[in-house]
Amino acid sequence: MQILQNFNKAFESKARLGIMSVLMVNDEVSFIVLKDLLSMTDGNLATHLRALEEANYIAFKKEFIGRKPSTVYSVTDEGKKAFNEHLNELEKFIKGS
Amino acid sequence: MNEHLENLKEIRSLMERSSKFLSLSGLSGISAGVCALLGAWYAHQKIHIDALYLLFDPVVRQEIVPLLLIDAAFVLIGALLSGAFFTIRKARKQGLNVWNSTSKRLLNSMLVPLFAGGIFCLGLIYNGFFWIAFPATLVFYGIALVNASKYTVRDTYYLGMGEIVLGIISLFLARWNLIFWAAGFGVLHIVYGVVMYFKYDKITA
Fold it and tell me: What single Pfam family name could you report for this chain, choosing any that match (chain A) (predicted)?
Protein backbone atom coordinates (compact mmCIF):
# COMPACT_ATOMS: atom_id res chain seq x y z
CA MET A 1 0.00 0.00 0.00
CA GLN A 2 3.01 2.26 0.13
CA ILE A 3 2.61 3.45 -3.43
CA LEU A 4 -0.83 4.79 -2.61
CA GLN A 5 0.80 7.45 -0.48
CA ASN A 6 1.89 9.23 -3.63
CA PHE A 7 -1.71 9.69 -4.67
CA ASN A 8 -2.91 13.21 -4.33
CA LYS A 9 -5.53 13.44 -1.62
CA ALA A 10 -7.26 16.32 -3.40
CA PHE A 11 -8.21 13.96 -6.24
CA GLU A 12 -9.37 11.14 -4.05
CA SER A 13 -13.01 11.17 -5.05
CA LYS A 14 -14.38 10.21 -8.41
CA ALA A 15 -16.21 13.51 -8.61
CA ARG A 16 -13.00 15.52 -8.31
CA LEU A 17 -11.25 13.38 -10.88
CA GLY A 18 -14.20 14.03 -13.15
CA ILE A 19 -14.13 17.79 -12.62
CA MET A 20 -10.40 17.92 -13.29
CA SER A 21 -10.61 15.82 -16.45
CA VAL A 22 -13.33 18.01 -17.91
CA LEU A 23 -11.38 21.18 -17.10
CA MET A 24 -8.14 19.77 -18.51
CA VAL A 25 -9.52 19.57 -22.06
CA ASN A 26 -11.59 22.76 -22.00
CA ASP A 27 -10.52 26.36 -21.50
CA GLU A 28 -13.59 27.22 -19.49
CA VAL A 29 -16.60 25.24 -18.31
CA SER A 30 -19.72 26.63 -16.67
CA PHE A 31 -21.25 25.25 -13.48
CA ILE A 32 -24.36 24.13 -15.36
CA VAL A 33 -22.40 22.15 -17.94
CA LEU A 34 -20.26 20.51 -15.24
CA LYS A 35 -23.40 19.54 -13.38
CA ASP A 36 -24.84 18.06 -16.55
CA LEU A 37 -21.71 16.13 -17.51
CA LEU A 38 -21.06 14.69 -14.07
CA SER A 39 -24.74 14.23 -13.15
CA MET A 40 -24.24 15.70 -9.71
CA THR A 41 -26.46 17.82 -7.49
CA ASP A 42 -25.74 21.53 -7.03
CA GLY A 43 -24.62 21.14 -3.43
CA ASN A 44 -22.40 18.15 -4.05
CA LEU A 45 -20.70 19.73 -7.04
CA ALA A 46 -20.21 23.03 -5.22
CA THR A 47 -18.51 21.26 -2.30
CA HIS A 48 -16.04 19.47 -4.56
CA LEU A 49 -15.38 22.61 -6.56
CA ARG A 50 -14.64 24.53 -3.38
CA ALA A 51 -12.18 21.88 -2.24
CA LEU A 52 -10.29 22.02 -5.54
CA GLU A 53 -10.37 25.78 -5.45
CA GLU A 54 -8.92 25.86 -1.95
CA ALA A 55 -6.08 23.65 -3.18
CA ASN A 56 -5.51 26.30 -5.89
CA TYR A 57 -6.08 23.72 -8.59
CA ILE A 58 -8.96 25.55 -10.21
CA ALA A 59 -10.03 29.15 -10.60
CA PHE A 60 -13.45 30.59 -11.22
CA LYS A 61 -15.00 33.80 -12.39
CA LYS A 62 -18.54 35.07 -12.51
CA GLU A 63 -19.80 36.47 -15.74
CA PHE A 64 -23.06 37.39 -17.37
CA ILE A 65 -24.36 35.38 -20.29
CA GLY A 66 -27.06 37.68 -21.59
CA ARG A 67 -28.80 38.71 -18.41
CA LYS A 68 -28.12 35.54 -16.42
CA PRO A 69 -25.13 35.17 -14.13
CA SER A 70 -22.94 32.16 -14.78
CA THR A 71 -19.94 30.82 -12.88
CA VAL A 72 -17.17 29.64 -15.14
CA TYR A 73 -14.34 27.38 -14.00
CA SER A 74 -10.90 26.78 -15.40
CA VAL A 75 -7.86 24.81 -14.32
CA THR A 76 -4.76 26.59 -12.97
CA ASP A 77 -1.18 25.74 -13.95
CA GLU A 78 -0.72 24.26 -10.53
CA GLY A 79 -3.81 22.13 -11.05
CA LYS A 80 -2.57 20.90 -14.42
CA LYS A 81 0.73 19.86 -12.90
CA ALA A 82 -0.86 18.12 -9.94
CA PHE A 83 -3.37 16.29 -12.09
CA ASN A 84 -0.71 15.06 -14.51
CA GLU A 85 1.36 13.81 -11.59
CA HIS A 86 -1.67 12.07 -10.21
CA LEU A 87 -2.32 10.37 -13.54
CA ASN A 88 1.31 9.24 -13.69
CA GLU A 89 0.99 7.70 -10.25
CA LEU A 90 -2.22 5.98 -11.28
CA GLU A 91 -0.51 4.59 -14.34
CA LYS A 92 2.45 3.36 -12.32
CA PHE A 93 0.12 1.72 -9.85
CA ILE A 94 -1.84 -0.10 -12.52
CA LYS A 95 1.26 -1.24 -14.38
CA GLY A 96 2.87 -2.40 -11.16
CA SER A 97 0.05 -4.64 -10.01
CA MET B 1 -7.36 -1.87 -8.67
CA ASN B 2 -10.74 -2.23 -10.29
CA GLU B 3 -11.76 1.05 -8.82
CA HIS B 4 -8.81 2.80 -10.45
CA LEU B 5 -9.56 1.23 -13.80
CA GLU B 6 -13.12 2.44 -13.48
CA ASN B 7 -11.86 5.91 -12.69
CA LEU B 8 -9.63 5.93 -15.74
CA LYS B 9 -12.48 4.87 -17.97
CA GLU B 10 -14.64 7.61 -16.53
CA ILE B 11 -11.90 10.19 -17.06
CA ARG B 12 -11.49 9.18 -20.66
CA SER B 13 -15.19 9.36 -21.40
CA LEU B 14 -15.58 12.73 -19.67
CA MET B 15 -12.64 14.21 -21.56
CA GLU B 16 -14.13 13.09 -24.82
CA ARG B 17 -17.69 14.13 -24.12
CA SER B 18 -16.81 17.51 -22.68
CA SER B 19 -14.62 18.56 -25.59
CA LYS B 20 -17.55 18.40 -27.98
CA PHE B 21 -19.83 21.26 -28.84
CA LEU B 22 -23.17 20.19 -27.42
CA SER B 23 -25.17 23.38 -27.80
CA LEU B 24 -26.36 22.66 -31.34
CA SER B 25 -30.11 23.00 -31.09
CA GLY B 26 -32.51 20.72 -32.91
CA LEU B 27 -34.59 23.80 -33.66
CA SER B 28 -31.63 25.12 -35.70
CA GLY B 29 -31.92 22.09 -37.97
CA ILE B 30 -35.66 22.54 -38.34
CA SER B 31 -35.41 26.25 -39.15
CA ALA B 32 -32.62 25.66 -41.69
CA GLY B 33 -34.76 22.94 -43.30
CA VAL B 34 -37.76 25.25 -43.54
CA CYS B 35 -35.63 27.94 -45.20
CA ALA B 36 -34.39 25.42 -47.77
CA LEU B 37 -37.92 24.20 -48.54
CA LEU B 38 -39.14 27.78 -49.03
CA GLY B 39 -36.19 28.46 -51.34
CA ALA B 40 -36.82 25.32 -53.38
CA TRP B 41 -40.52 26.12 -53.62
CA TYR B 42 -39.75 29.63 -54.88
CA ALA B 43 -37.31 28.24 -57.46
CA HIS B 44 -39.92 25.78 -58.63
CA GLN B 45 -42.51 28.54 -58.96
CA LYS B 46 -40.12 30.52 -61.12
CA ILE B 47 -38.90 27.82 -63.47
CA HIS B 48 -41.76 25.31 -63.33
CA ILE B 49 -39.41 22.37 -63.76
CA ASP B 50 -37.37 20.19 -61.47
CA ALA B 51 -34.85 19.01 -64.04
CA LEU B 52 -32.36 21.84 -64.09
CA TYR B 53 -30.36 20.39 -66.95
CA LEU B 54 -33.27 21.36 -69.18
CA LEU B 55 -32.12 24.96 -68.84
CA PHE B 56 -30.18 24.70 -72.07
CA ASP B 57 -31.45 27.81 -73.72
CA PRO B 58 -28.79 30.48 -73.08
CA VAL B 59 -31.34 33.27 -73.03
CA VAL B 60 -33.54 31.54 -70.48
CA ARG B 61 -30.46 30.67 -68.50
CA GLN B 62 -29.27 34.23 -68.35
CA GLU B 63 -32.57 35.16 -66.82
CA ILE B 64 -32.92 32.24 -64.44
CA VAL B 65 -29.41 31.84 -63.08
CA PRO B 66 -29.13 35.21 -61.29
CA LEU B 67 -32.58 34.68 -59.87
CA LEU B 68 -31.64 31.26 -58.48
CA LEU B 69 -28.36 32.58 -57.12
CA ILE B 70 -30.19 35.29 -55.22
CA ASP B 71 -32.72 32.71 -54.03
CA ALA B 72 -29.87 30.47 -52.85
CA ALA B 73 -28.18 33.38 -51.07
CA PHE B 74 -31.41 34.13 -49.20
CA VAL B 75 -31.75 30.47 -48.18
CA LEU B 76 -28.16 30.44 -46.95
CA ILE B 77 -28.50 33.66 -44.95
CA GLY B 78 -31.89 32.66 -43.54
CA ALA B 79 -30.65 29.21 -42.53
CA LEU B 80 -27.48 30.60 -40.93
CA LEU B 81 -29.24 33.36 -39.00
CA SER B 82 -32.10 31.21 -37.71
CA GLY B 83 -29.74 28.33 -36.99
CA ALA B 84 -27.38 30.59 -35.05
CA PHE B 85 -30.29 32.09 -33.13
CA PHE B 86 -31.51 28.77 -31.68
CA THR B 87 -28.01 27.51 -30.96
CA ILE B 88 -27.00 30.72 -29.16
CA ARG B 89 -30.23 30.46 -27.18
CA LYS B 90 -29.44 26.90 -26.14
CA ALA B 91 -25.86 27.80 -25.21
CA ARG B 92 -27.14 30.59 -22.98
CA LYS B 93 -29.46 28.19 -21.25
CA GLN B 94 -26.42 26.04 -20.53
CA GLY B 95 -24.65 29.07 -19.09
CA LEU B 96 -22.13 29.05 -21.93
CA ASN B 97 -20.70 31.58 -24.26
CA VAL B 98 -21.42 30.30 -27.75
CA TRP B 99 -17.96 31.37 -28.90
CA ASN B 100 -15.76 28.88 -27.03
CA SER B 101 -13.03 26.41 -27.86
CA THR B 102 -15.45 23.64 -28.83
CA SER B 103 -17.53 25.78 -31.20
CA LYS B 104 -14.36 27.16 -32.77
CA ARG B 105 -13.11 23.64 -33.45
CA LEU B 106 -16.47 22.69 -34.92
CA LEU B 107 -16.59 25.70 -37.24
CA ASN B 108 -12.97 25.26 -38.31
CA SER B 109 -13.60 21.68 -39.33
CA MET B 110 -16.62 22.70 -41.43
CA LEU B 111 -15.10 25.77 -42.98
CA VAL B 112 -12.54 24.11 -45.25
CA PRO B 113 -14.91 21.73 -47.11
CA LEU B 114 -17.64 24.37 -47.25
CA PHE B 115 -15.35 27.04 -48.62
CA ALA B 116 -13.81 24.72 -51.20
CA GLY B 117 -17.28 23.42 -52.10
CA GLY B 118 -18.73 26.90 -52.43
CA ILE B 119 -16.00 28.04 -54.82
CA PHE B 120 -16.27 24.76 -56.75
CA CYS B 121 -20.01 25.25 -57.25
CA LEU B 122 -19.60 28.86 -58.33
CA GLY B 123 -17.03 27.57 -60.84
CA LEU B 124 -19.53 25.03 -62.14
CA ILE B 125 -22.17 27.70 -62.63
CA TYR B 126 -19.65 30.06 -64.23
CA ASN B 127 -18.74 27.37 -66.74
CA GLY B 128 -22.35 26.57 -67.51
CA PHE B 129 -22.63 23.27 -65.65
CA PHE B 130 -25.52 24.70 -63.83
CA TRP B 131 -27.41 21.55 -62.90
CA ILE B 132 -24.37 19.81 -61.42
CA ALA B 133 -23.98 22.60 -58.88
CA PHE B 134 -27.08 21.38 -57.04
CA PRO B 135 -25.90 17.84 -56.28
CA ALA B 136 -22.43 19.27 -55.63
CA THR B 137 -23.72 21.52 -52.84
CA LEU B 138 -25.28 18.45 -51.19
CA VAL B 139 -22.10 16.40 -51.45
CA PHE B 140 -19.80 19.13 -50.14
CA TYR B 141 -22.15 20.02 -47.31
CA GLY B 142 -22.33 16.34 -46.38
CA ILE B 143 -18.55 16.07 -46.33
CA ALA B 144 -18.35 19.15 -44.10
CA LEU B 145 -20.82 17.57 -41.66
CA VAL B 146 -19.08 14.21 -41.58
CA ASN B 147 -15.81 16.02 -40.93
CA ALA B 148 -17.33 18.16 -38.18
CA SER B 149 -19.15 15.29 -36.47
CA LYS B 150 -16.02 14.50 -34.41
CA TYR B 151 -16.56 17.75 -32.55
CA THR B 152 -20.25 17.53 -31.82
CA VAL B 153 -23.07 15.02 -31.40
CA ARG B 154 -22.71 11.83 -33.39
CA ASP B 155 -26.02 12.42 -35.18
CA THR B 156 -24.42 14.99 -37.47
CA TYR B 157 -22.38 12.15 -38.97
CA TYR B 158 -25.54 10.42 -40.18
CA LEU B 159 -27.00 13.69 -41.43
CA GLY B 160 -23.80 14.26 -43.42
CA MET B 161 -23.86 10.74 -44.86
CA GLY B 162 -27.50 11.27 -45.85
CA GLU B 163 -26.64 14.48 -47.69
CA ILE B 164 -23.75 12.81 -49.54
CA VAL B 165 -25.90 9.86 -50.63
CA LEU B 166 -28.73 12.12 -51.83
CA GLY B 167 -26.23 14.30 -53.70
CA ILE B 168 -24.68 11.33 -55.46
CA ILE B 169 -28.01 9.78 -56.43
CA SER B 170 -29.22 13.09 -57.76
CA LEU B 171 -26.17 13.31 -60.01
CA PHE B 172 -27.53 10.31 -61.86
CA LEU B 173 -31.19 11.25 -61.67
CA ALA B 174 -30.86 14.74 -63.06
CA ARG B 175 -34.59 14.86 -63.72
CA TRP B 176 -35.25 15.33 -60.04
CA ASN B 177 -32.42 17.70 -59.25
CA LEU B 178 -34.48 20.26 -57.41
CA ILE B 179 -36.51 17.65 -55.54
CA PHE B 180 -33.36 15.94 -54.29
CA TRP B 181 -31.96 19.27 -53.27
CA ALA B 182 -35.15 20.06 -51.33
CA ALA B 183 -35.07 16.59 -49.77
CA GLY B 184 -31.45 16.99 -48.68
CA PHE B 185 -31.43 20.53 -47.37
CA GLY B 186 -35.09 20.67 -46.40
CA VAL B 187 -36.54 17.34 -45.34
CA LEU B 188 -33.34 15.79 -43.97
CA HIS B 189 -32.60 18.87 -41.87
CA ILE B 190 -36.10 18.87 -40.44
CA VAL B 191 -36.02 15.15 -39.63
CA TYR B 192 -32.60 15.56 -38.02
CA GLY B 193 -33.76 18.64 -36.14
CA VAL B 194 -36.81 16.88 -34.72
CA VAL B 195 -34.74 13.86 -33.65
CA MET B 196 -32.14 16.15 -32.02
CA TYR B 197 -34.82 18.17 -30.30
CA PHE B 198 -36.42 15.21 -28.63
CA LYS B 199 -33.10 13.50 -27.89
CA TYR B 200 -31.13 16.38 -26.37
CA ASP B 201 -33.02 19.67 -26.09
CA LYS B 202 -35.99 18.47 -24.09
CA ILE B 203 -33.76 17.39 -21.25
CA THR B 204 -31.83 20.60 -20.80
CA ALA B 205 -34.62 22.99 -21.86
Answer: HTH_34
